[in-house]
Specification:
- With 450 residues, the chain is an alpha+beta fold.
- It is built from 15 helices and 18 strands.
- The protein has 3 domains: 84 residues, Rossmann fold; 70 residues, 2-Layer Sandwich (Dna Ligase, domain 1), CATH 3.30.1490.20; 241 residues, ATP-grasp fold, B domain (D-amino Acid Aminotransferase, Chain A, domain 1), CATH 3.30.470.20.
- It is globular, with a radius of gyration of 21 Å.
- The structure holds adenosine-5'-diphosphate.
- The site of adenosine-5'-diphosphate has 21 residues, from strand 6, strand 7, strand 8, strand 12 and strand 13.
Length: 450
């Protein structure tokens, strides 16, 4: 049993973990940079420790500083949230060496899934369907051309160590390959310190469908259905919903079972997300995230479970608190990501929030670390809140989203709220008729000066 958890993160996800811990009677420690002394997670936690200067590399990504904070405060375990150190196997190994618990999977599983080639190989061996592509890494331009000829254009070149939508380039023809190949490698090198790339068939009209899995680390695992996260800009999700409007109960049960069986076989522990592209009734694995996802609340809403509580419980050594048959979908949920940025320019706009009013009422959840008078620092991600709505069906969830967005006031900075007001006017969004390219096409048609 844990008495005290340190949350190695900031913003809304730090609050999410502190809240779960408090409901379980577990103490919480916030860590923060000097830029975050006034942040809500510091105010809300039982204790806090300053771990360094503003840049993430010197604070939220500093393994020694975070371990020292855990030792000083006597924390039993660390919850990493998402981003920062959440998928860093070196960090997890260091915690083990210091006898500090980690609320998440093993260092080995993080390592396997963090390398996209070994993730794909592992999933293929476990019977999970994958996007057709190169057999492992592609070393030279000649090899890239040969592989792509075999797959047929268009293809996508991906950095093995990539993430967050970076390190990916599309080549529509052999002529585009030299530039695409070189720039994917360069981006992999500069952003992730690794220039290895691999190639996949580029699917032209897929949806992004991801399956939530949960393992107990002892050979048992369940799935919690899918989330449709196809509405993306620059490979970044902006609007997520569950269940997916295009997925039937039979498809969900089938792909869910494949995923749960796969993670059970490797004794996976904790929350995980297996991401697929879905086209013409077929699922193609692209990657696995070995952590809690930003969009986990839509799954919590439709299944009535607390995924963070469950993460903490299995890390303590408990069995899962639900069986597959207990997990029954109730209604429909949608999340929209509120960013501090301009619309339609999408330029980051940190600054002072003069007034803040969160929406409320039946089926509305606002996860945000904002408060009136708070100054959003310029050093971190522009995500400042997530509005999640739950309704008895998709139509009522959409109506509730419209109503809740109307109540949400964030004054003093520009935000992505107007994007969602505009999306809710679109027949394709209202009918669920979209794929991963819909949003960018729409932005280009509607908002680019001709
Ligand atoms: P990251 O780790 O950077 O998030 P992913 O492999 O998860 O990268 O891919 C992110 C997004 O990029 C997907 O949701 C999809 O929109 C697009 N994408 C990735 N692979 C392909 C592919 N083979 N064909 C078409 N789009 C793809």
């Amino acid at each position: 049993m844990f008495d005290k958890i340190l949350v190695a993160n900031r913003g809304e996800i730090a609050l999410r973990v502190i809240r779960a811990a408090r409901e379980m009677g577990i103490g919480s420690v916030a860590v923060h940079s000097t830029a975050d002394s006034d942040a809500m997670h510091v105010r809300m936690a039982d204790e806090s420790v300053c771990i360094g200067p503003a840049p993430g590399t010197d604070s939220y990504l500093s393994i020694p500083a975070i371990i020292a904070a855990a030792e000083i405060t006597g924390a039993d375990a660390i919850h990493p949230g998402y981003g920062f150190l959440s998928e860093n196997s070196v960090f997890v190994q260091a915690l083990q060496d210091h006898d500090i618990g980690f609320i998440g999977p093993t260092a080995e599983h993080i390592r396997i899934m963090g390398d996209k080639i070994s993730a794909k190989d592992t999933m293929k061996d476990l019977g999970v369907p994958c996007v057709p592509g190169s057999d492992g890494g592609v070393e030279s331009l000649d090899d890239a051309l040969t592989v792509s000829e075999g797959l047929g254009y268009p293809v996508i070149i991906k950095a093995t160590a990539g993430g967050g939508g970076r390190g990916m380039k599309v080549a529509k023809s052999a002529a585009e390959m030299p530039t695409a190949f070189r720039s994917a490698r360069a981006e992999g090198k500069s952003a992730f310190g690794n220039d290895e790339v691999y190639i996949e068939k580029y699917l032209t009209t897929p949806r992004h469908i991801e399956i939530q899995v949960f393992g107990d680390g002892k050979g048992k695992a369940v799935h919690l259905g899918e989330r449709d996260c196809s509405l993306q800009r620059r490979h970044q999700k902006v609007f997520e919903e569950a269940p997916g409007p295009s997925i039937s109960a039979d498809e969900r049960a089938a792909i869910g079972k494949v995923c749960a069986d796969a993670v059970a076989r490797i004794n996976y522990i904790g929350a995980g997300t297996i991401e697929f592209l879905y086209e013409k009734g077929e699922f193609f694995f692209i990657e696995m995230n070995t952590r809690l996802q930003v969009e986990h609340p839509v799954t919590e809403a439709i299944f009535g479970v607390d995924l963070v509580r469950e993460q903490i419980r299995v890390a303590e050594g408990h069995d899962l608190s639900f069986e597959q048959d207990d997990l029954v979908i109730n209604g429909h949920a949608i999340e929209v990501r509120i960013n501090a940025e301009t619309f339609p320019g999408f330029a980051p706009r940190p600054g002072k929030v003069n007034a803040y009013h969160a929406p409320g009422g039946l089926g509305v959840r606002m996860d945000s670390a904002l408060y009136a008078g708070y100054s959003i620092p310029p050093y971190y991600d522009s995500l400042i809140g997530k509005l999640i709505v739950h309704g008895r069906d998709r139509e009522s969830a959409l109506a509730r989203l419209d109503r809740a967005l109307g109540e949400l006031i964030i004054d003093g900075i520009e935000t992505s709220i107007p994007l969602f007001h505009a999306l809710l006017q679109e027949p394709d969004v209202l009918s669920g008729n979209y794929n991963i390219h819909w949003l960018e096409n729409w932005l280009e048609t509607k908002f680019t000066e001709k």
